[in-house]
Amino acid sequence: MLDPQFIERNKQQLLEERQRLLEDIMVQKQTLKGEVDVDVEEADPDIIEREKSATLIEALESKLADVEHALKMIEAGQYGICERCGAEIPQERLEVKPEATLCIRCQAEVERLLRRGQNPQRGRWHFPVA
Questions:
Q1: First-to-last CA distance in the chain?
Q2: Helices assigned H by DSSP within the chain
Q3: Residue 53 in contact with residue 26, Cβ under 8 Å?
């Protein structure tokens, strides 16, 4: 069982991370809006920069979704419990990756399924938090 003070520290860290991500996303979207009038030539540097910005926004939004999901797990009283198998997530993992909601074994299995193009079927997990 995780120490309530540890959970509170991680919650504050996740809230700060969420704010940073929201700000970064906003900056990137403003940058993307400013990149207009691109020429559709194959090697147009503006197109390449737009693609980079769009990819970065996608990555930031994915990280934001992970952070918000972890905050939901805290609010549900399930933080530190693997939502796939129900095992306790080691505190060491949560110190490194506070947004983790899967134990290392389940995270590896989910990544393996995704690499194979299979759906890890989140709805069938031990603690499916929407």
A1: 23
A2: 4-34, 45-75, 91-96, 104-115
A3: no
Residue with tokens 């992970």: 66
Q: Which residues pair with 88 in a beta bridge?
A: 81
pLDDT reported for residue 1: 81
Q: Give 30-39 contacts, CB < 8 A, sequence gap 24+.
A: 32/57
In the chain, the domains with their CATH numbers are 4-124 (1.20.120.910)
**pLDDT tens digits, one per residue of 52-97:** 889 999 999 999 999 999 999 999 999 999 999 999 999 999 999 9
Mean confidence (pLDDT) of the chain: 87
Q: In Å, what is the CA distance from 81 to each residue of 36, 66, 87?
A: 46, 15, 6
How many residues are present in the chain?
A: 130
Of 11-15, 39-43, 72-76, 101-105, the range with the lowest mean pLDDT is 39-43
Alpha carbon separation from 76 to 38, 71, 94 (Å, rounded): 47, 9, 17
